Amino acid sequence: MESNGLSTQWGLAELHGSLTDPAISSMNLLNELIDEYPRAISMAAGRPYEEFFDIRLIHDYLDAYCEHLRRDRKMDEAGVTRTLFQYGTTKGVIPDLIARNLAEDEDIDAAPESVVVTVGAQEAMFLVLRTLRADERDVLLAPAPTYVGLTGAALLTDTPVRPVRSTENGIDPDDLVLQLKRAGEEGKRVRACYVTPNFANPTGTSMDLPARHRLLDVAEANGILLLEDNAYGLFGAERLPTLKSLDRSRSVVYLGSFAKTGMPGARVGYAIADQRMPDGGLLADQLSKLKGMLTVNTSPIAQAVIAGKLLRNDYSLVKANTREIAIYQRNLRHTLDALTRELGDRPGVGWNTPTGGFFVTVTVPFTADDALLEHAARDHGVLFTPMHHFYGGKGGFNQLRLSISLLTPELIEEGVRRLAALITARLP
Amino acid sequence: MESNGLSTQWGLAELHGSLTDPAISSMNLLNELIDEYPRAISMAAGRPYEEFFDIRLIHDYLDAYCEHLRRDRKMDEAGVTRTLFQYGTTKGVIPDLIARNLAEDEDIDAAPESVVVTVGAQEAMFLVLRTLRADERDVLLAPAPTYVGLTGAALLTDTPVRPVRSTENGIDPDDLVLQLKRAGEEGKRVRACYVTPNFANPTGTSMDLPARHRLLDVAEANGILLLEDNAYGLFGAERLPTLKSLDRSRSVVYLGSFAKTGMPGARVGYAIADQRMPDGGLLADQLSKLKGMLTVNTSPIAQAVIAGKLLRNDYSLVKANTREIAIYQRNLRHTLDALTRELGDRPGVGWNTPTGGFFVTVTVPFTADDALLEHAARDHGVLFTPMHHFYGGKGGFNQLRLSISLLTPELIEEGVRRLAALITARLP
What we know:
The structure is a homodimer.
Chain A: H1 22-36, E1 41-42, H2 55-71, H3 77-85, H4 95-106, E2 115-118, H5 120-132, E3 138-144, H6 148-156, E4 161-167, E5 170-171, H7 173-185, E6 189-195, H8 209-222, E7 225-229, H9 243-246, E8 252-257, E9 269-272, H10 283-294, H11 300-312, H12 317-320, H13 322-343, E10 350-351, E11 359-363, H14 370-380, E12 382-383, E13 385-386, E14 399-403, H15 409-426
Parallel strand pairs in A: 1-12, 3-4, 3-6, 6-7, 7-8
Antiparallel strand pairs in A: 2-9, 4-5, 8-9, 10-11, 11-14, 13-14
Cofactor (chains A, B): pyridoxal 5'-phosphate
Pfam families (chains A, B): Aminotran_1_2
Protein name (chains A, B): PLP-dependent aminotransferase family protein
């Protein structure tokens, strides 16, 4: 008999395998480390800029959505309150508004019935992977390095993720063909490939237009889905068409996030899954069935806040984020300029030059691991993210990710100065 | 090459097994059927009463929480806006307020660090089952009939659920002992047993105090967890102590819901998991790690709405629901009185007599399946839930569930009259 309520058999080894996966343990370690040094300049957090946060906006967005229900949907007051207070439909209460936003900002023609509103893009990833993982043959492809949230969703669904080579032009379609062939030879069934064509997390890289077309061709020819994550697409000097807007064969499931463009605190995202099922209906209907068993529905109040932001900005998040886009572009320029100034002549030190998004990849000629991060935090007062965390601990030990989203030009200057001191001290 | 974007291999049979499980298919069918007859009197929906919904309450609750952050947490305005707008901690921003509520209403002494705020109790169920399902030996026990959300979470985590006999005194501890023995003999590892001691969904039954103590003893002696779902506990004439408040060996994980007592539209629930892990920390920390990969965090805005309701009512949901409790009690009495009046002398027809909650079980001497429901909806204008949906289609074909929560006395009278006409016409 146990006094702590768990038998001795209940150690971590007896719980679900995801809990002890190196990828998850390392991210937890990383977060703890970062929490330990709250006064260091953080080029680690990929959170959106905070200057324009204002509690009154939440009230105003709620009002805007309620007005919309009364005026455009002709709801009486009981209908309006029921929409916000009561359980909502599993697919969400704002798919039509999301469809209008996608038409406005992304030239994506999404039928509202293909939209499933989710608790952030994270839940959408889980739902898609859970749907596609039927048995142990099923695998997912993803660029290496890749977003940790994708790794997490794969772990929760027991889905093996096989890496595809990633270059400064994003995921490599030729290596994708090779990996598809290999997986087939090994008796595996590739259901989908995860991609972030715009300003990817963690690398900051984007795919050019020919690479996008080639990727779509490969997906169509091989009967796999592309899971397109576009969390950062809005924040670019130049904006290329999303895969979904180019998709003529319904090869793309679009994973939408409002965390960076709407408000992280709403925790609202969505999937566009317009694939027709042989048995009738859309893939979105299957995602919705699983969502009903996972979170029932996304908070209508949270959806109302996002809807209100769309309604107050003519359905355009580009318009809503005019100031934020300028700030992220300014921060990116400042970061790249500071890197050139502080580290431009250091042998073996380099970085990529993204034209948008939140992230820059810096390469160094020594090991950049958690020990280095701890040293940087303690002795130099600067935080970054060791890139190996995005390789599941299997690579990237000479790279680090810098985030530019939450800082001011002054903090960027000082942060890069501190980073340069750290790096310079490590050079031979 | 396919024009619909999914290869022919992508039929339902090639997707995750949960999508074609009889339990889920039948619930979907049921919902479609109910949607088809919107003008019938619905004794099917278990939604909370709507009369006191008021949009202004959402604004007021948000204000109350912001005031709390300023006054009690000494936050400046940037801190307040950051708390609501930005990503929050995975375990949630209101565990301390939930702990105060549990102390106030349920005599449960929960450390804030043992609380994980979730997207409804549904996500809490998923997290617990995902954590506990390490390999194919792991099984869950649950009363038959049981809540469909539990069945759903089990399907998503590939966890087999083995039934335990349920009586008018709730789950039967003696049958639990028997099922534990059988599972062990078959090489299975029972991790937990799901229970709803107060006014269970779907049956309406409750456990008496000796049965609660006996259940705790069985759990402790066998080293299994009890997953206590208390969604309806507040709505009783008499309120017995929760298992968690009686738990001296940390055998109970408490699954909390604010859907009925707070506001369904907030989609906020929680788990209390104060079990100490042999490797350090609490079971709550493991749930939180999985939540970070599933939904990242529960919307702080949604949490703020629930927090505001707690703050405006001295942390007591009993106080906040004074009017609702009276209405549910009145509706239950009206339903039982109407059943006696309309069906009291019909041979083979019976029902239980819950003293609280939303549900009554009616037993009939003929098959009460979806065909009967369709007939009831079309020809009698009344909706109920065939009980077999809560047995995974494996039993309960002579029972139906009546919900009393969303109706007025007039609708209850008329609904039961229509139901009586249907039943009487079927009697020999």
